[in-house]
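Why does this matter for the project? Reviewers at the last site visit asked to see concrete outputs rather than summary tables. In response, this paragraph embeds two records directly. Each consists of the residue sequence and, immediately after it, the corresponding structure tokens. Nothing has been edited or filtered.
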Amino acid sequence: MKKLILSLLSTILLLSLSVPAFASENNKSQGEFEQFKIDLLEAELSGNDKLAEDYVSENPEFVAQYLKTDAFNSEKVNDKLKNSGLGPNGTVLLVMDDNSFVRVTTKTKPIVDESTPKKLTRDFSTNDYSREYDMSGTKWNTDYVYEVGRGVATLCLNTYYQIGSKMDIYAYDAGGTKGSVGVSVSHNLSLSGNKTATARVKGDYTLNYFGSNQHYTLYTEIGFLQAYLEADGYYYVDYYVDSWASA
């Protein structure tokens, strides 16, 4: 009986010693992850892409944790995104409350056919969502890039279209989509409302990492507003380009 009591006391003592040690290790790991997020953000803010990418590639144990941050909470991201004034041609860095971040970039440009070059009758403006240009057949391309961290995960939605009173999206792809070490990204793209007043490309992305997966959706929408004839004899169109993310 005495030996049994001593054995039980020894077991309790070992457990009492191991629990604080385990908790301390967890706290240390969480503290290191918080520092990782800050270091990654500081590298991004300084414009040091190489340093930021090195942080990601050299710390794969933190990648899975990063994919669970506010940067992948679509409700929180969209709340910041809708107030960012991004428009169809610009870039914005969205810093979340937990120091994770998302860089969102849209690039809209005319597609020039070198065999039959055409001079635009008006410059392409990026001041707001409304655009004016000759509606005689110019083609456009909008690239929407949603990057979490710096290379943790990059989701791309590229749309090619021709604008008139009806929107004609004639091609789209996810070129440039990728994940960091340990993260693979698959995607499925679809088109709706084509050759109507509003056309939309939807990109469904699945991120697979360390035995888990997460789903994300990007949209790019092209919408007709109005067409009108001006004194120069050309018809012009007002339209909008909008991109956003969703769960």
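We now turn to the second protein, recorded in exactly the same manner.
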Amino acid sequence: MKKLTLLLLLLVFMSVLANAQNYPDFFPQLLLNKEVKVLEKKTESVKYGYDNFYEDKSLKTKYACCDSYNSKYDNLVNRIFTVTKVDMISGYFILTLTDDKETLYFKYEPRYRFKYPFEVIGGLEIPDYYYCHHISKKPSSQDPTKHFFISEKEEGISFFKMKLDEITVYIVDFTFPSKVLSDAKEVYLKLENGAIISGVNPNIKIEPKNEYGNYLYNANITLKSEDIELLKNYKIVEESIGGIKEEVEYGDTHIGVFNCLVTKE
């Protein structure tokens, strides 16, 4: 009975993870035959409309032009389409979108997640390779017979896994901009369950202001065994360096990438 209960809980948990994921990353074929809803925008962004929607597959004519050179917001917001075809072009994809009124086309660029305006109805079923393709195996500069694993930065967050004297070490590195300058030394990650993962003597780096008037904060945390278990099961929702806080939006991706990293040997 206990085993059955545990299995049911696991299935529910896996279902929640799948439904929480909307972004297909470099695998837009996962969207094929799925219904997608055009998400509402924040009030300050409504005037800019929606980018990358077109009337024609050649992507020459913007659909419902124009709000600030983009498709008119009111013509697309909350509409539900079925993705009926996915075409791969050099450097991007074209999604064919159909509803009971018309067919239009969306230029999908995997590297620009902020341009993706959809919620997938029912969520995406995520295969293992979806997250693992973000992780690379690198040779150690000190010992070419050894290696480490590193994930690509997403929202400025990257994970490392390496062996030092037969001990496996995990590190999370994170970077974000801020217009505020602080000399405080505390560093932490906040998870969706309220847990805090904090650093011990963190190595904080702050770059001078850039052309946008932002300082660039960077820090890393060497993870304890309990931190590893937390990151395997709960999304990151906030990062903080020197008292400066930044919201984390893509916790679904971070948890998937970290779980794949743990399996690497």
